[in-house]
Structures are given as C-alpha cells and as structure tokens.
Amino acid sequence: MIKQEQVIEFLRLKQESEGGYTGEDITKLAELLGVSPRGMRMRISYWIKTNKKFSQFIYLRKEKPPITLFEFFKIEHGLESNPIQVN
C-alpha cells in the first residue's frame, strides 16, 4: 500500500531542491515503494484531485530538462544584451 505521507515528503523534497517533480522522479519513487510506475502516477493524480496537500506540487515534465534554469537565464540575458552574439 502506498502511504500518502511518504509521497508528500518525497515530492516536498523535490519541490524544494528542483522546483518540482518529473516523471523520472515518480518512477524512482515507485521503485522505492515497490509499486508500478503507472500505479504511482494514477495514485498521485487521484490525490491531486482529492487532497489539497498534493495540489501545491509542480509537475515539471516527463524528463528533466537538459539545461538548468540558471543556464537558461544566462543564455536569455546574453541574447538580450547582444542578439547576434555567437558562442
């Protein structure tokens, strides 16, 4: 059986460290709890609809982005300051 408190703690840590959780994180959590990734996703989807604690977490996407948010802002700033710059 999947315990809500364990999942909440896991998602809270991901939220604090990475700004949200990904599909890869759900798969890792499912392995830790000994359930299928599909079952874990379905349970989290249900809890998001029925438990306000889960609605605070942000689902980023299926996989982690290839660049960090800091790298994105650095690129964006470079393009704003010199749009024809080539790196």
Structure summary:
The protein is mainly α and 87 residues long. It has helices at residues 4-18, 23-33, 37-50, 52-55, 69-81; strands at residues 21-22, 59-61.
Would you spell out the secondary-structure blueprint of this structure?
Layout (H helix, E strand, L loop, with lengths): L3 H15 L2 E2 H11 L3 H14 L1 H4 L3 E3 L7 H13 L6
Parallel strand pairs: 1-2
Helix pairs in contact: 2-3
Describe the structure.
The protein is mainly alpha-helical and 87 residues long. The N and C termini lie far apart (52 Å). The protein has helices spanning 4-18, 23-33, 37-50, 52-55, 69-81, and strands spanning 21-22, 59-61. Helix 2 packs across helix 3 (37-50). It has a domain at 4-62: Arc Repressor Mutant, subunit A. It contains five helices and two strands. A two-stranded parallel sheet has the order 1-2. It is elongated. 66% of the residues lie in helices and 6% in strands.
Describe the structure using short key phrases.
Arc Repressor Mutant, subunit A; mainly alpha; elongated; 87 residues
Number of strands: 2
Largest sheet: 2 strands, parallel
- Approximate shape: elongated
Oligomer: single chain
Strand order of the largest sheet: 1-2
Gap from first CA to last CA: 52 Å
Order of helices and strands: HEHHHEH
Strand content: 5-15%
Mean pLDDT across the residues is 83
Report the CATH C-level class of the domain at 4-62.
Answer: Mainly Alpha
What are the segments in which pLDDT stays under 50 over at least 5 consecutive residues? none
Which fold name is given in CATH as the topology of the domain at 4-62? Arc Repressor Mutant, subunit A
Helix content: 55-70%
C-alpha-based Rg, rounded: 17 Å
Alpha-beta content class:
mainly alpha
* Count of individual helical segments: 5
